[in-house]
Design goal:
The structure is a single chain. With 138 residues, the protein is an all-alpha fold.
Length: 138
């Protein structure tokens, strides 16, 4: 029988919605959205994806790392203590989760295999369904 964790899991962290930024990202360039809302991780994740599509793996890494760190700040402000679920089903969490995924991909692209693996595991630990959903988008 595998060992059982007797410590309760912390409650899920749910980030607040930033409706204006979400709407802007649908129609505006992600760079413009990041300028207006620099703490909106989904804009940084979109910039990372765009940079990777353009073949700029270093910029993709930098954008993803920025989104990841901005999201960590928000998670901490909302009660996260370094572990516990960050559910994909809660749409405002997706900026963090996507930034984390993009950081893993970009780290692998620049040869940071250990960081890529850590980020991939952190994503899976945050919410396995996020890892599954994001790995299907490439």
């Amino acid at each position: 029988m595998p060992p059982q964790n007797l410590m309760p899991e912390p409650p899920a962290t749910l980030l607040p919605e930033n409706t204006p930024a979400v709407e802007a990202l649908k129609t505006e360039d992600p760079a413009d959205v990041a300028r207006k809302w620099p703490d909106f991780p989904a804009a940084w994740a979109a910039l990372s994806a765009k940079a990777l599509e353009g073949g700029d793996d270093v910029a993709a890494y930098a954008y993803a790392r920025t989104g990841y760190h901005r999201a960590l700040d928000q998670l901490r402000k909302n009660g996260w203590r370094g572990h516990g679920p960050v559910p994909w089903s809660h749409k405002p969490n997706r900026g963090f989760l996507t930034s984390l995924y993009r950081l893993s991909v970009a780290a692998a692209q620049i040869g940071e295999a250990d960081e890529a693996a850590r980020c991939a595991q952190f994503l899976r630990d945050s919410d396995p369904s996020a890892a599954d959903a994001l790995s299907s988008i490439g």
